[in-house]
Amino acid sequence: MDLERGHEGWTVWRGLLLGLLWVRAQISARLPTFGLLGLAAWATAFYFARRLYLFDLERLTGLHVSRQVLIGRDFVNVWTGGLLARLGDLGVIYDVPAYRFVLRKAMELGGIYAYSYPPHTLLLAVPFSLFSYPVALALWTAVGAALFCHAARPYLSRVRLPILVALILPGSLVNIWAGHYGFLVGALALYGWRWLDTHPRRAGIIFGIMTIKPHLGVLVALVLLLRRDWAAIGWAAAATGALALVSGSLFGFGLWPVYVLKTLLFQADLFTGEVTRSFHHMMPTTSAAILLLGYSETTAKFWQAVSALIAVAVVIEAFRRRVDTLDLGLIASTAVFLVVPYAFNYDMTVVSLAALVFLARASEWEGFWTRLGLQTVLAIGFVLPLALPWLGQQDVVIGPVVLALMLGGQLLLVARPHGLKVSFPTRFIRHVFGQRLSA
């Protein structure tokens, strides 16, 4: 068994190493763009990814990492929720004690699992329950990864990177490990922003589907209101209503009041409970950071409000400066983690993408010290999803600070294009023709 585990561990590490070498080959031609800081960020990310994956592999027995954890981790909830809905055991889904009893009996799994997603997510969960758990997990990961790569394509093409880079972003690697919604919600956000200018109806529908993780879309609503994009708003509302209607027709409308009145309150209590405080080191949010530092819930709420105001102000300022929609979407997707108190590192797929894209663009900044500062902040922000658990264990709480600095750097890059480098031929032409025109 030890030899088998050692072989599995080496296989994963070898795969990660090959991935790192592939990434290095892809960006080696752009070394002047990413610089040594960029390469160091990739190397650091893969170091933490190795720690994360080997931690599970070294403890793996069958599908169990431990008595409380199954491989694929949070995908347990997706698969179990879908199975219960398909079998008609709807009353169990949001009944936490009954739900956990099912997990103990069916999968010999303890822990603090609960189905905490809105009822219309069952429309997505049921099809995956048709397969065995390992097959369903593989399909869930593959489909999500394919969607995210496709959605990220125009963002990566702007900095001349292949779409497969999206698979090995720090947020992506954490999401694969956690078996969560990061790929799907990230893809929906990226699709929505890229279609908003040209296909507002399509974008609105996509944003409506994003309500499977409603808190991650709060700044989408703000941007749509700022833009007065009534078509997108209307279609988003219609899509949300249609999903609620279809899920209610199939699974019963009684699930919705249970979710709103009980499950959301349960999640709020869970956030501040003693048992779940061990998960705060996986959260980049301000509230989690303040609680980790030992301060009261009141103090956490105060600083959460402060960080939310700062994030909203940055998004409004970016809109006021008529920032390109794709860039505005990346900024909003970063800012939301300073607005909401409850979010995890596996939700940060788009944050990783934004950090990488802006890191590449930061190298074009003309001033050396400003460029170095931008690259440093963005490189740290790039690694953050993978580094958070280790940093939390060392009592180093920097998530909100890094996000705030990264957000400021993003705004600086998109709001001050005159700070970017201008090639010598362009400067020469401007100089010569400018003198002639003035003469």
TrEMBL record:
Keywords: Cell membrane, Membrane, Transferase, Transmembrane, Transmembrane helix. The chain crosses the membrane at residues 31-49, 131-151, 163-193, 205-226, 233-259, 302-319, 331-360, 372-391, 397-415. GO terms for cellular component: plasma membrane. It is found in: Cell membrane. It comes from the Bacteria. One of its GO terms (molecular function) is hexosyltransferase activity. It is a multi-pass membrane protein. It holds the Pfam family GT87. Belongs to the glycosyltransferase 87 family. This is DUF2029 domain-containing protein.
